[in-house]
Amino acid sequence: MKNPRRVLYNIALWAVAIFFFSPIAWIALASFKTKNGILATPPQLIFAPTLDNYADFFTRPNVGQYFLNSILLSVAAVLLAILVSFLASYCFSRFQPKATGFLMFLLLSIRMVPAAASVVPVFLMYTAFGWKDNWLGIMLFYAMFSIPFSVWILKGFIDGVSQRYDETALVNGGSRLHVLFKVVLPQVRPGLIAAFIFNFIFVWNEFLINFIIGGKTTTTIPTALIIGVSNNQGMDWTFVATLTTIYILPPIIAIYFFQKYLLVGMTFGTVRGEV
Q1: Where are the alpha helices (DSSP H) in the chain?
Q2: Which residues constitute the domain of residue 248?
Q3: N or C: which end of the chain has fewer CB within 10 A?
């Protein structure tokens, strides 16, 4: 016979999961309804699904470009941020420059500042440099905003790698680059993946900066959602439901396949020790 406490625990977990998953399930079901079905009161749980919303969605102009912009900006910006963060984290961990603790706090404090507080100076700077609606300029901003959090995650992982690995490689004639990319990097791969996923989700969902300093050539899906939510007949709920359903799939798939690395990234540092 099962332990009653265990049964109650499982029931509670399922209840919490269903509660948080309900909005996602609702928006996914709504993408297969007509507009009247979405707005029906009470909500329709049993209905005849239709694919007209998806057919209409993929025939809209620039939809493919919006998705391509989101994917390219997210992946390119985060990869650049991970590379810079890995090098910076190794420096902080191994060479420990003066005021390392203060510098780490200063880095993280940049991430604490809300985007709305920096949007005006960023807009003025990008306008002066001619970077408005510039793919490279927006990618560099996202990379800059992703670096602080990545440094914090990766430094913790590198601290857990014994310096004896570095010393052994250097004594045997290896270069510092060999130590970095052949010795240390493979051992902190879970941290790299965790940092990538966390920052990918941030860039994937970012709206304000793209809306202010972006343009036709750099529009991402969040901005496209705001632009296309209304038409001559009011709020286009079928468009919202369809776009949202498609848009949340990449993060969900990434989190599903790399969830063990995300767990390591969130809990690393609670137990310290060399590997």
Answers
A1: 4-30, 35-38, 52-58, 63-94, 100-112, 115-129, 135-159, 163-171, 176-178, 189-205, 208-213, 221-228, 237-247, 249-257, 259-267
A2: 60-267
A3: N
User: What pLDDT is stored for residue 270 in this prediction?
Assistant: 44
Low-confidence ranges of the chain (pLDDT < 70): 1-2, 228-234, 264-275
Q: What is the CATH number of the domain that holds 138?
A: 1.10.3720.10
Distance CA 172, CA 146 (A): 35
Q: What pLDDT score was predicted for residue 203?
A: 92
How many domains, in total, are found in the chain? Answer: 1
CA gap 186, 11 in Å, rounded: 40
49: tokens are 């699904």
Please give the structure tokens belonging to residue 217: 């050539």
Give the pLDDT confidence score for residue 104 in this predicted structure. Answer: 84
Task: Report DSSP state, residue 45.
Answer: S
User: d(Cα 259, Cα 9) in Å, to the nearest integer?
Assistant: 22
